[in-house]
Amino acid sequence: MIEVANLKKYYGEDDEIKAVDDVSFTCPNGQITGLLGPNGAGKTTTLRMITGLIKPLGGKVTVDGRNAANEGQAVRRLLGIQADSNGVYPRMTPREQFKYYGRFYGLHGKELAARVQAVIAELQMADIADRRAEGFSRGQRQKIVLGRALVHNPPNVIMDEPTNGLDVMAVRHTRDTIRAMKTQGRCVLFSTHYMDEAERLCDNIAIIVAGKIVAFGTPAQLMAQTGQDNLEDAFVALVGRDNLAHSKYA
Amino acid sequence: MESALPSPSKWRVRRTIARKEIVTIAGHKNYLAPLLIPILLSLLFRLLFGALNADEGVVLLVVDPGNSALAAVLEQAPEVEVRRMAGEAEMLAELAGDATGGVVIPVDFDTAVTANQQPPLTILLNSEARESNKAILQKLVSEQLWISQYDTPPARLSWQEYQTGSAAFAAYSVDNYLYFLLVLLSITTVGVVILPQMMLEEKEGGVLAALLASPADYADLLLGKVAAAFIYALILAGVITVLNQGYTGNWWLTAVATLLVIIFSLAVGVLFGLWAETKGQCHAYSAIFVLLLNMPSWFSVVPFANLSPILQAVLRLIPTYYYIDTLIQSLNGLVDPAQAGFNLAVLLVSGVITWGIVSWRLRRVAVVSI
Fold first, then answer.
1. Domain shared by B111 and B230, yes or no
2. Contact B1 A185 (CB under 8 A)
3. SS3 category, B44
4. How many angstroms separate the CA of residue B36 from the nearest CA in chain A?
5. A93, A147, B18, B202: which has the fewest Cβ within 10 Å?
């Protein structure tokens, strides 16, 4: 379970840019929590603070009861991260990349080989597991990124726009993988731009605008709260048209 | 779900990164080619100059008033021609000619050996003899004969370069010049060209965020890459030293100076890696820096003292000047302890200062751009 309380990150000489401002929400185990917001709303900054890539100005992140500020290394072992840049090592095969990352988490020997094989099977990539990643499609690269995040079998998974730029089949596969994570009892937190994706996948949705959480609830609760009959209209109503003026939804 | 993975030690993480980098370099033509070129050039020059000097054999002048068993054993070795001399003065005079080396075996040498007293034995090497011939002689005496004839080293062997020609010019053999060029080129290529490229791999490839979100942090990544580059630089320097007989003379001084210049070179490379945003940007500037750092080796074809004062002053501003000057002293057997100590100190201080700048830069850039 991931708990975020009063998280803050300001930029600028006088902290005039409030990238994330007093953000709080909880992502329970066995559920998928979506983080939605227009471009520049603070989604990626929030996720990066949770994963320890950026130090927060204030607030607290707790993962399975462990405080990220005091137990950073322990928290990292509890998290699987899919960052927004889906880069891979082009000269390494997926299997080599999974082994490489697995070793960072203390896996080795037969245990590591077994986990790598399990991930390859789970992501249905046996046909490409031993090919160099050079020239892989975006979908194939995304599988490597997901595999790296799952190789140590983390109870919590964080993904930043996991389906961004993927073709239909790759999107379907990624969404299936996210659903499987939920079935396995993992806590899944991900950001997305796609309303239909959030509506189909998420148990809970946090809507973030200008660094603040403006709404949190199930898709049905958010629609009921705004009196809209679909999530996209509910989102627009909650975010406000002014905030969307410079985003991709405008 | 519960994750009960053990906490990997920092060294295991760094070792994992270093191992991956070593494999990456070995399998990447862009990295491997610049590393192999100095080795191939060493082999090529060795073949060329070996052919030019093929008629020169290994000659050892022996003064042996006690008719020792050692001289008898050496005479039976096909690789060396032993010429017996009547006395030390005659041997030294002859050493100025085509001889590779000379030795005065004490009268009571065999007695001392039998009594396990390990008597001292100094073999003089003709400073103008071919480096390869000197190497053959050293190998023959140090390894083959002694190990096969005795269970333990029978004597405390030492080698001394004997200055037979003009003191100023004797050190400047083609063999040495090529060694200086190639060893410095190899070390600086690994440090200043390849290491920063390795550092930029994650940044340019969009892998850095994923890696930093794992238990590995940026310091682990950096140390792993530096360790891999250090191993490559050490191996390359070692291979080139062996191929070019750079181990003759004061080999320990050569080894210490080489280690210090590697450390300095890696620090320069890390600075480049931290500063540059792209491999292309890094490549352009690091190439200029490699040329600059290699300048002292180009000018070592003549004694530094014969260069113009301005050029000398410029070269003295480059830390690698002190490396080349140390190698010249070391290989020539003309070590001035004060000057050699000063050279090593300059190399050490250059390394410490550059690593200090790296440390400052790392602290200043608290959040690595991802």
1. no
2. yes
3. helix
4. 20
5. A93
Q: How far apart (Å, rounded) are the C-alpha atoms in residues A188 and A182?
A: 7
Res B167 pLDDT > 50: no
Copy the structure tokens of residue B77.
């070795």
Of the two residues A15 and B32, the one the predictor is more confident about is B32
Does one domain contain both B220 and B343?
yes
Nearest CA of chain A to the CA of B366: how many Å? Answer: 10
Closest partner residue to B16 (CB to CB) among A89, A103, A185 is: A103
Contact: B5, A91; criterion CB under 8 Å: no
Q: CB-based contact (8 Å) between A78 and chain B?
A: yes
- The per-residue pLDDT for B53 is 53
pLDDT of residue B146: 61
Q: What does the pLDDT read at residue B225?
A: 96
B291 Cβ contact list (under 8 Å, min separation 6): none
Domain region containing B95: 57-129+131-162
The phi-psi region of residue A153 (left if phi > 0; otherwise alpha if psi is between -120 and 50; otherwise beta) is left
A130 within some domain: no
- Residue B111: count other Cβ atoms within 10 Å of its Cβ: 13
pLDDT in tens, B269-309: 999 998 888 888 888 888 899 999 999 999 987 778 888 99
Average pLDDT across chain A, whole number = 88
b/e map B293-303, b = 16+ CB within 10 Å: bbbbbebbeee
Q: Residue A229, SS3?
A: coil
Total domain count, chain B: 2
B28 lies in some domain: yes
Distance CA(A210)–CA(A195), nearest Å, equals 19
* DSSP 8-state code for residue B57: -
How many whole angstroms separate alpha carbon A196 and alpha carbon A164? 13
Dist. CA B144–CA B137, nearest whole Å: 10
Q: Provide the chain A residues 1-30 that lie in CB contact (below 8 A) with chain B.
A: 29
- A67-77: buried (b, 16+ CB within 10 Å) or exposed (e) per residue? ebeeeeebbbb
A vs B, Cβ pairs < 8 A, gives: 97
Flag whether the ipTM exceeds 0.95.
no
Tell me the residue range of the domain where A191 lies. Answer: 2-87+155-234
Closest CA to A35 of A180, A169, A212: A212
Please report, rounded to a whole number, the percentage of residues in chain B having pLDDT higher than 90.
36
Enumerate the residues of chain B whose CB falls inside 8 A of the CB of residue A81.
209-210, 213-214
- Whether A104 sits inside 8 A of B8 (CB atoms) is yes
Q: Above 80 in pLDDT, residue B76? A: yes
Q: Which of B20, B213, B216 sits opposite A81 (nearest CB)?
A: B213
Residue among A51, A53, A87 minimizing CB distance to B206: A87
B238 shares its domain with B278: yes
Backbone angles phi, psi at A245, to 5 degrees: -55, -35
Q: Give the pLDDT of residue A246.
A: 52
pLDDT digits (tens, 9 = 90+) for B105-164: 888 888 888 887 888 888 888 877 776 677 778 777 766 556 555 566 677 777 787 776
Of B354 and B277, the structure prediction assigns the larger pLDDT to B354
